[in-house]
C-alpha cells in the first residue's frame, strides 16, 4: 500500500466530500481497488460480491475491521448489511448499528431506493446515469500543482471508492501498482484512493503525491516508469505531451459542466467529451517489435523513408496498419532535428486534416536509431502526382488542391510556427475517405520566434526566398514565397528552374527578381495572387490566411476567366506546349534533393 502521511486536519483548502461520514481511525482494507481481483490482498480469502453494484469485499477483513473499531458513536461508512452468516458476539451489536447503507449487503435482494440513506432526502432529478445525493456525496474538480513538474494538472475528486479497472479517460485497461493506486499507461491518468475515507482522486498528469479531500492525508505515489526508451529527453517529452493534451481537452470540456456531469460523461462514454477525446491522439512510444515488413521507398539528405506494417491495438483487438517509418541517419543531429520534428508534429495533433499524422516513435534495439512512425499517404507526393496526372488536372482541381495546401500552411502559421522546407515533395495525398492533401516533413519546422536553426540554410534552392540568401531569417513570409512556387508548379507540372544549374548564378538571379515564366493559360487573378506570393519584398506578400481566402474567392468571382483558362489549357496540351512530358529534359545540375546550402550564403558558395 502507498505510504500515508497525516497532515493538518484544519487545512484551509479542506473540502469534505462526505460530510455525513467521519474518516475511519484505521485503514479500511476489506474492499478491493480492482473489481477483477478475486482474492484479498491481505488475507488471501476469496472475495464475496455485493448484490448492488457487484462490489467485491473480504468477509474476514470486514470482521477484523468491526472488531478493531474503538469508537462506537461515529459513522465511518455508508453500509447496510445482513449479518446472517457473519459470526459475531453480543458485544458487537452496538457497533453494527452505525453501518447504515446499501453498498455492502448479502443474502437478500436490494430494491433501488428513491431516497438517500444518510440524510433521508429524495434523490433530485438528474440527467446522470446513477443516483447520488449532492448533499452527502460531493464530487469536485480543479487543479493540482504537480510536485514533480510544478505545473497545475487537472484532478477529479470522487467521494467514493472507485474499483474500476478501465480508465475513464481513454477506456483502456488500468495497471495496478498497489492496493490503492493504479494508472493508465496510455494517457498517464493516475488513480489513488484513501483507505481511511474510501475516496478516490483521479489525476490527469504526473505528480509524486496527492491529498485526500476529506482527511487531508498525503497519498504518496510509487514511482512509475512511463516509457522505456533509454533516452531521458524523449521520455520527458512524450510524458509531457500527454499531460498537456489531457489538460487542454479537460479544460475545454469542463468549463460548461458541473463536477457530477463531468464524471457522468466520463463514466457513460457519452457527450462531447468522449467524441472530442477520441478524435485527438497523442504521440506515443511504440515497441520496435510491432513494426514489420519495412520497405525502403525514399532517401533524403538526413533520413530514410520506409513503408511498413504496424501491429496496433485498437482497444478490442490487434490489427495491422500501413505506416511510414522515418529513420534519421547518424549524421542527423537528433537533439536538434529529431526532437524538433517530434515537437512540431505534436503541435499540430489537433489539426490532422491538413498535417501528416504521427502515431509515435520507436527505436531499433540493435542500432539504437530512433524512428518516427507516421501516417501513410497512399497517393504519393504532389510532384509525382502532377507528373502522372497533369493532363487530367483541370483548373478547378488545381484550386481545390491549393486550397488544401493553403489550409495546412495556415494551421502551421496559426500556431506561430514556420515550415522552412516547403515544396511539392513535402505535400502528400491521402486517398482515405476521399482525397486530401497534407503537409509533411516538419523536421525544420520551428517557432517563428525561435532563431535556433536560422544560422543554417537547408533546403531546395528554387523554393527558398531571396531574402534568405541575403542573410535574413526564415519566416512566415519565406513560407509564402515557397507557396508561390508551388502554385506555379501546379500550372506546369514541372519544378521551378529545372532547365538551369542550381548554383550561385541562380541565387543571384533569384535575388535580382528572376521568377519562372507564367503559362499562357493562367487566369489573371491567379497570376496576380501567385506573383504577390513570390514578391521580392517579404512585407508585400500576403499572409497564409489571405492566400486561403483568395483561393476560395477567385473561383467564385472569376468564372469566365477560369472557363477560358480551361479551354486554353486543353488547347496547349493538344499542341504539346504544356505539361511535363512536353518540357525539355531537366539540367543535370538542377538539384531537388534536400541539402545544406551554407551558413548564410558565403563567398565559398559563389566560387
TrEMBL record:
Annotated Pfam families: PK_Tyr_Ser-Thr
Which residue intervals define the domain Protein kinase in the entry? 291-563
Mind telling me which Gene3D superfamilies this protein's record contains? Transferase(Phosphotransferase) domain 1
Q: Does the keyword Transferase apply?
A: yes
Q: Which UniProt keywords apply?
A: ATP-binding, Kinase, Nucleotide-binding, Transferase
MF terms per GO, please? Answer: ATP binding; protein serine/threonine kinase activity
Q: The organism sits in which domain of life?
A: Eukaryota
Q: Which PROSITE patterns does this chain map to?
A: PROTEIN_KINASE_DOM
Q: Return the protein name.
A: Kinase-like protein
Which source organism does the UniProt entry give? Rhizophagus irregularis
